[in-house]
């Protein structure tokens, strides 16, 4: 870490001499308190937060979390001289000073992504010596500054939906406790998305498309990773060329698995939707909920094979009612395409056979 700070200081000195743009402010990233505005970190070269600084690398996920149809841009910063360490198909071990940046934005018309885009929020996950911290910054109407919102915020977003009709979104900026709720593994704040298996896909970099694991390894962001071909790959949920079950499990992993796993906030539910879970019953097959309530919709099991209309999982995904809807944070409207995928997945399942002597389930 001292080496990274020394190198950052040298880069800052070069900037003062007019030899280079100001580097990412590693000292601000590592400060005890978050900066009051996003520009203090110098993660971007422009006031509008659209041009990443040197050392800030864009990335994408094969299957991301749905957030009310927001467009998302993702970036990773690794301090000079440091590297993330490959630890398997899950999250790399990011070094102190690393930052994960996620920008949320909406185009004026969802049918024209990238056109007339309004930035609404930029979230940071910063790896400090004591662990990860999370901050949310909200953009002003002029799109020139993003300020810290510790207590969260509600934003009115107006756009046009895929069907051509006006779409109003009650967009929620999470508060600190909500960040911890979703990003908790065994009670410790942790990133969700950039698992090696979810990065294992091509990205269209400025100098050409390249597999992200290969790119991170080649450019010194990541050490110890094998060839991408040797790493499990999370399927792309919206690619019809991929198998239905792979796409559906990837979607559930990305949207539900961060809480519904043995170390997550919903571990007491016994419903585990992360890709690592292999037990069909734990994944919801013919599984009764731990605590029945109105969230069950008077249905009996989480997943009733072949019967999406009898499945609690589908019922909760189709709801926007507080206390019923799942995920309970991060969305205010139904993800129609995601819901259709999970309905098709459940409908395509063979109904499990029961052993009449024991009552146990033989998985399909």
How much beta, percentage-wise?
15-25%
Q: What summary fits the major beta sheet?
A: 6 strands, antiparallel
- Rounded to an integer in angstroms, the radius of gyration calculated over CA atoms is 22 Å
Low-confidence spans: pLDDT under 50, at least 5 residues? Answer: 13-17, 353-364
How far the N terminus sits from the C terminus, by CA atoms, comes to 51 Å
Work out the count of structural domains: 2
Shape: globular
- SSE succession: HHEEEEEEEEEHEEHEEHEHHHEE
Q: Which features does this protein show?
A:
364 residues; alpha+beta; 2 domains; six-stranded antiparallel β-sheet; 8 helices; disordered C terminus
Notes on the structure:
With 364 residues, this protein is of the alpha+beta class. It folds into two domains: 26-230, no CATH class; 244-362, no CATH class. The chain has eight helices and 16 strands. A hairpin with a 2-residue loop joins strand 12 and strand 13 (208-211).
């Amino acid at each position: 870490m001292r080496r990274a700070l020394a190198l950052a200081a040298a880069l800052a000195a070069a900037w003062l001499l007019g030899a280079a743009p100001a580097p990412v402010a590693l000292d601000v990233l590592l400060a005890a308190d978050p900066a009051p505005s996003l520009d203090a970190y110098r993660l971007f070269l422009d006031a509008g937060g659209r041009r990443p600084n040197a050392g800030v690398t864009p990335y994408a996920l094969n299957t991301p979390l749905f957030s009310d149809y927001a467009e998302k841009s993702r970036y990773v910063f690794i301090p000079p001289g440091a590297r993330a360490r490959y630890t398997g198909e899950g999250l790399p071990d990011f070094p102190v000073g690393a930052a994960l940046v996620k920008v949320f934005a909406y185009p004026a018309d969802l049918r024209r992504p990238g056109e007339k885009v309004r930035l609404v929020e930029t979230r940071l996950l910063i790896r400090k010596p004591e662990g990860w911290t999370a901050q949310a910054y909200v953009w002003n109407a002029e799109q020139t500054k993003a300020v810290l919102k510790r207590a969260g915020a509600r934003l009115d977003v107006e756009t046009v939906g895929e069907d051509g009709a006006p779409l109003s979104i009650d967009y929620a900026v999470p508060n600190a406790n909500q960040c911890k709720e979703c990003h908790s593994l065994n009670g410790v704040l942790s990133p969700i998305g950039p698992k090696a298996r979810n990065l294992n896909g091509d990205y269209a970099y400025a100098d050409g498309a390249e597999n992200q694991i290969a790119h991170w390894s080649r450019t010194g962001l990541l050490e110890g990773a094998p060839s991408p071909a040797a790493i499990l790959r999370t399927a792309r949920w919206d690619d019809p060329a991929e198998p239905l079950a792979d796409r559906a499990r990837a979607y559930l992993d990305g949207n539900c698995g961060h809480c519904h796993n043995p170390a997550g906030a919903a571990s007491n539910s016994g419903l585990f939707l992360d890709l690592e879970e292999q037990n069909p019953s734990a994944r919801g097959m013919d599984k009764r909920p731990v605590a029945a309530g109105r969230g069950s919709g008077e249905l009996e099991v989480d997943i009733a094979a072949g019967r999406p209309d009898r499945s609690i999982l589908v019922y909760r995904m189709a709801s926007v009612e507080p206390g019923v809807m799942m995920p309970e944070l991060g969305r205010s409207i139904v993800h129609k395409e995601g819901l259709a995928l999970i309905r098709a997945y459940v409908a395509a399942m063979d109904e499990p056979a029961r052993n009449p002597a024991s009552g146990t389930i033989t998985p399909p």
